[in-house]
Fold these 2 entries.
Entry 1:
Amino acid sequence: MAIDTTTYAVPLARTISDMREQVASWRAAGEKIALVPTMGALHEGHLSLIEVAKAHGATKAIVSIFVNPTQFGPGEDFDAYPRTEATDAEKLVDRADLIFAPNGSEMYPDGYGTTVSVKGVTNTLEGEARPTHFDGVATVVSKLLLAALPDCAVFGEKDYQQLLTIRRMVTDLRIPVEILGGPILREPDGLAMSSRNVYLTETERKAAGQLNVILKETADAITNGADLKTATADAESKLLELGFDKVDYLTVRDTTTLQPVEKLAEEARILVAAKIGQPRLLDNMPVEFRG
Ligand code: PAF
């Protein structure tokens, strides 16, 4: 195969060897290469990650599009996950220099038997709710990083635990890549952008817009001295009253270990996962400590 320059306006690689060839020639020309891993269904949040890479000095951006089967658990939305490669490619015009969109067997060769498993930071929150999820993420991200060997790779802070997991993995495996976090991009009412927001009905979408409002109110109350347990329990009750079906967690955690915080003694992070209708919404933000 070779890089495909006719299907979309942005060059497309379907194989690791094609992508590597392109990366090698960029590197020889002194370019600084960024990788933005995605599962497609691109929105402004993804596009902002390319901007983060460029602001950090990247001169070439590769966006990978791969709906990774191993990070979906049984009964999750792998089959239904939106696959919109052509519209994704349009959004990347003048933004990305290469799309890497491999098929399943390029990423998981026949008989594959290797899983990357990160301990510690994955043992809680999403790791409890979705026990195989982070193995799938760590495995595919390590493959993508080793395939592209970029100078930097960017991941959104909306999946805060994922970002910490990837940082841990890259440190542990000594993968020579700089991991950058991109701030959460929000809709006008503050709902964190997510490819899964398309699953929300009109009524659910309205209630979903309150998630960040309640999270912010709770974070501010805790900063101002409110009892942490009471404040988070109140926030959970408000979400259920608003029509959320289930709150998996709404909790204040240490910013790097994600261990529970009993009493605020330094900046922490408040994180939530709550189900409304079909999607499970994630959000998080810092909880300031004013000493
Ligand atoms: O955040 C995502 O979209 C995915 O988890 C990632 C990092 C692209 C791995 O499949």
Entry 2:
Amino acid sequence: MMNHRKRDGFTSKFGAYAAVVGSAVGLGNIWRFPYMTGENGGGAFLLIYFIFVIVIGIPVVLSEFVIGRRGRGNSYASFVKLAPKSYWYLVGLMGIFSAFIILAFYTTVSGWTLHYIYLSVKDIFSATVSSSPAEIFNEFQKGTVMPLLWQFIFMIFTVLIIISGVQKGIEKSSKILMPALFLILVILSIKTISLPGAMDGLRFLFYPDFSKINSNVILDALGQAAFSLSIGMGALITYGSYIKRDNNLFKTALSVSLTDMGIAILAGVAIFPALFSFGLSPQQGPGLVFIVLPEVFQQMMWGEIFALLFFILLAIAALTSTISLLEVVVAYFSEEFKMKRRNATIFGAALAFILGIFTTLSFGPLRNAKLFEKTVFDNCDFLSTNILLPLGALFIVIFLGWFYEIDQTKDEITNQGTVRVWFFPVFVFIIRFVAPLAIFLVFLKGLGII
Ligand code: PFF
């Protein structure tokens, strides 16, 4: 059922850009990208990730905007509007389900960022403190009350913004938080590049060693590109539905994707030189920014201040992403079940928090509760990032490329014929052939099927 009340939405181009960049730039860029790059051999991973963003990422972002703005609804309703009497709405529902799962495990790590802000304020990362960052992290993670408490507080921040609405909550907060994030990241990068030995870190990040490439690296790069751009699920469809009719969708998709990639690379520039400068290994997995970086801060001049800045950066990045995840769920509940925004927000957040309790405790009391040899957290991450997001992206491009009338898509991208579309044939070629084939192959190979 569609909603005929006047819909809330983004009021300006910059507001829309800031909000979508807010969704895209998150823990994926600053926490996940560095450790993925570290584990997958540096430059080679960056190169494949780069290719995926350009060839698949940008067209999928644009496709989702088209579906959302044309459908003018949440990710389920937009499919119902564009393809009535078909099963395509299932893709929309799958997106809402993915958002829900990501929100659960995402707030686990988001909670850690708040704890680390607190630790930085307590000056725990200064040279005089004797316990090692690894001990601090392991002690904290093993706990029950503190990680859950921080996760809960983080969820409350997310709820407060979402309750305020699309314009007054999402748009307004993103317009302040994203420039702040950028500024902090630039300060940190300048500091680390000036450390002795920084060049080794930059070489690791930018120099591709092709012997490191294998099918896992490729699947991880695809998953990373999808996760980082927030594609393959409801987020960009939902945000797309809030974009004004006269905004240029292609320009927005392009600028958002490039910004997202730029911020990931900048995060790499802020992190790798510091690691190499202090002789630390980049292959540390998820603990990279919570264990190895604090070791760097302990040894660095004014490390306490940089630690504080870094964890504020991480928390901001996480917050503008969790609001987009919760919005997917809230838009669905409020439009389809006629729930008040406030109730839909609290209900959606509470449900995600319940699953989130399990993802958080999977580092502590539940660390031995495994399914397919993975903890709850790892299962949620793998299921959403490596399976649901690529599948979602695959269905989205197949839908627009093969089922929805191509003239309608053109009408939406050209704002009813008022903007030029030199790239349109390229876009159609990609969403029809290149993207589906690439996603499909990578996907099968990654699952070990071929
Ligand atoms: N793009 C976010 C990040 O890189 O951290 C994560 C994310 C947010 C994924 C929203 C999906 C989404 F819908």
